[in-house]
Design a protein that fits this description.
The structure is a single chain. The chain has 6 helices and 9 strands; from the N terminus they run H-E-E-E-H-H-E-H-E-H-E-E-E-H-E. It has about 210 residues and is α+β, with helices and mostly antiparallel strands.
């Protein structure tokens, strides 16, 4: 039976819409632990290009931040985040702090402001990557500040989620908390499996454009 040109056109259009929808879903898919970490290219607060794939062979930590978020303040005011950054740097790990707050939104910073915060807080990231368009944040489905990701030397996502198991903004809760980031880094450095690979992140929502 011959299909009329009208029905052929409708069928073809439906296929195109379906394919487009599937491509859209794939583009929004969240990163998966055990799979290659999504590659990205960004610009840091010193105007230098940062490309994830060029860091293969090193452990990489991605830390989403918002300096005005109480949960972020908790980890910086206590010195907890800085201690993690310095310990990681001492073992050759690359630590990228990512700011995905859009212009006009809480946590947005210029390059100069980002460098000022690094100095005033005595922070020690390898670089602060500015992501005001939210491109990198959405690629990683980063939802909170902080939201932590750890990538192993092979470029595989080894951990993603919360910094620890105490989802509060109280500095007092840092003591005695199970720090998932330090546990994951210690395991990777020792060549052992990461004990906890994925947790639910906590904090303020990322202030996307």
């Amino acid at each position: 039976m011959r299909v009329s040109s009208r029905w052929h056109s409708i069928f073809t259009a439906a296929l195109v819409v379906t394919a487009g929808a599937l491509a859209s879903v794939e583009a929004r898919a969240e990163p998966v632990v055990g799979k290659p970490a999504p590659d990205f290219t960004g610009t840091d607060s010193n105007g230098k290009t940062v490309k994830l794939s060029s860091l293969k062979g090193k452990i990489v930590v991605l830390e989403w931040t918002n300096h005005d978020c109480p949960y972020t303040v908790k980890h910086y005011k206590s010195g907890n985040m800085q201690a993690l950054q310095k310990a990681a740097a001492g073992k050759g790990t690359v630590w990228l702090t990512v700011v995905s707050s859009a212009k006009g939104e809480q946590g947005h910073v210029t390059a100069k402001e980002a460098n000022g915060l690094t100095t005033s807080r005595k922070a020690a990231p390898t670089a602060v990557v500015l992501d005001p368009e939210g491109t990198i944040g959405k690629l990683y489905a980063a939802r909170t500040t902080p939201h932590m990701y750890i990538i192993d030397k092979a470029g595989t996502l080894a951990y993603m989620g919360a910094i620890d198991d105490k989802p509060s903004s109280s500095v007092d809760d840092i003591k005695g908390a199970k720090n998932y980031v330090s546990l994951a880094l210690a395991a990777l450095e020792a060549g052992k499996p990461v004990p906890v690979k994925s947790t639910r992140p906590y904090g303020c929502s990322v202030k996307y454009k």
